[in-house]
């Protein structure tokens, strides 16, 4: 095995694996992928200089050697097996191990209690759905930088997580966790916090103490409010809140997140956004799936760096005129805005706009003629906007337009001006029912 060669090879029919009689001392990488082996031979322990051991998609592998801890140079262990029931305790003796990654070990229910002895460990990844608890000793891993736990049945996290002073990324994915320890707020170097915890009732009140946090992604069906301290995360660049079904309002001072570039809210309860959101001068992406949201802030046009606006609401009746001031906007997507009857007249001022998707806006009737000034527009969709009957006559001025989707509309006649748009693809006809090409479109357009 060459030290430079780490490319995995599929070995579906391999049922045994033995170390040869050559010179195993020099082997530093062993990678087995998609094998049928059930056991690793004890002879693997002869690989005194082995640094990387990767066992991916070894579906029948039932156990690791009891003395695995004798691989004293091992730095990375990656394991994926549906048959492994336990890890040898000796794994805790791998004093140079930097990365331990376990994937799809469905029968694994517990971890060695002394994992905290892996003093050089920097990455710990468990994607094992039946693990119910973590050993408290994990909190002794003082060099740990990445902790990724995708364990559906995990019921609680260790109380002293705050002792992981070097931690940069923390991911919890669990269907059982209801609370997080307050000590999590002591992770002063944490940059990424990802929480997919359906039953989590609240975030720690002092979350704002995570002064280095750059990304917060959160999913919970039980959380009713966010701590106000979240507005103190002055380095936060991405805030994503998904399926927060009981969340009814957002902190008023969200506008203090001065470094924020991406903001996503998915909620069935939120009716209003704080006006301070318009102070996010570096925001580039705003995604709002909020069925009950009644209006967008009037000063939305102050988001001068915004490039993508995606919006779903069944209660919003109009868009603020200031939206036409978003001079860097490239993508505008409005979906299921069932009460929206019209668009701002000056939409054509969005000179950087490349994509407009207006889909299932069932009361929308008229398209402002100013959109014909959108020189950068490439994609225009009115799919299932069933009240729209016509397009502006000068649509052919959109020289960059490559796709026009009018399926599910009442548009029967296309403006003659579009015949000169070279390479334009037109999606037309009933919902999900393509129509044959029309001779009236000439050679430049394709009608589907």
TrEMBL record:
Domain Disease resistance R13L4/SHOC-2-like LRR residue range list: 43-129, 224-316
Protein name as it appears in the record: Disease resistance R13L4/SHOC-2-like LRR domain-containing protein
GO cellular component, one term: cytoplasm
Record organism: Centaurea solstitialis (yellow star-thistle)
UniProtKB keywords: Leucine-rich repeat, Repeat
Tree of life domain: Eukaryota
UniProt cross-references to SMART domains, sorted A to Z: LRR_TYP
Pfam families recorded: LRR_1, LRR_14
Gene Ontology biological-process annotations: defense response; response to other organism
């Amino acid at each position: 095995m060459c030290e430079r060669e780490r490319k995995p090879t599929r070995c579906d029919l391999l049922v045994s694996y033995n170390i040869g009689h050559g010179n195993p001392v020099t082997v530093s990488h062993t990678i087995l992928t998609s094998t049928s082996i059930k056991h690793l031979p004890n002879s693997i322990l002869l690989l005194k200089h082995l640094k990387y051991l990767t066992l991916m998609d070894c579906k029948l592998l039932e156990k690791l050697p009891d003395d695995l801890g004798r691989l004293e140079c091992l730095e990375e262990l990656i394991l994926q097996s549906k048959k492994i029931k336990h890890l040898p305790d000796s794994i805790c003796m791998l004093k140079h191990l930097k990365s331990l990654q376990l994937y799809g070990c469905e029968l694994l229910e517990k971890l060695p209690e002394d994992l905290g002895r892996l003093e050089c460990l920097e990455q710990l990844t468990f994607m094992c759905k039946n693990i119910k608890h973590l050993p408290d000793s994990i909190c002794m891993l003082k060099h740990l930088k990445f902790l990724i736990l995708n364990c559906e049945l995990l019921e609680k996290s260790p109380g002293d997580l705050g002792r992981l002073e070097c931690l940069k990324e923390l991911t919890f994915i669990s269907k059982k966790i209801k609370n997080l320890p307050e000590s999590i707020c002591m992770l002063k170097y944490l940059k990424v916090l990802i929480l997919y915890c359906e039953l989590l009732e609240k975030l720690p009140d002092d979350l704002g103490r995570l002064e280095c946090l750059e990304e917060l992604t959160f999913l919970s069906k039980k959380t009713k409010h966010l701590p106000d301290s979240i507005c103190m995360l002055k380095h936060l660049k991405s805030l994503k809140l998904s399926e927060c079904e009981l969340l009814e309002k957002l902190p008023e001072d969200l506008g203090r997140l001065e470094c924020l570039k991406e903001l996503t809210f998915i909620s069935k309860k939120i009716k209003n956004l704080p006006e301070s959101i318009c102070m996010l001068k570096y925001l580039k992406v705003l995604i709002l799936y909020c069925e009950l949201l009644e209006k967008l802030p009037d000063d939305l046009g102050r988001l001068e760096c915004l490039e993508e606006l995606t919006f779903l609401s069944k209660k919003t009746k109009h868009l603020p005129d200031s939206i036409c001031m978003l001079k860097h906007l490239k993508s505008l997507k409005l979906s299921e805005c069932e009460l929206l009857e019209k668009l701002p007249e000056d939409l054509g001022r969005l000179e950087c706009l490349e994509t407009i998707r207006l889909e299932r806006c069932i009361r929308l009737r008229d398209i402002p003629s100013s959109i014909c000034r959108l020189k950068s527009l490439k994609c225009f969709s009115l799919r299932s906007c069933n009240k729209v009957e016509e397009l502006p006559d000068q649509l052919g001025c959109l020289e960059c337009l490559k796709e026009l989707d009018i399926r599910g509309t009442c548009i029967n006649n296309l403006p003659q001006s579009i015949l000169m748009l070279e390479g334009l693809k037109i999606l037309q006809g009933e919902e999900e029912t393509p129509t044959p090409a029309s001779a009236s479109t000439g050679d430049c357009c394709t009608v589907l």
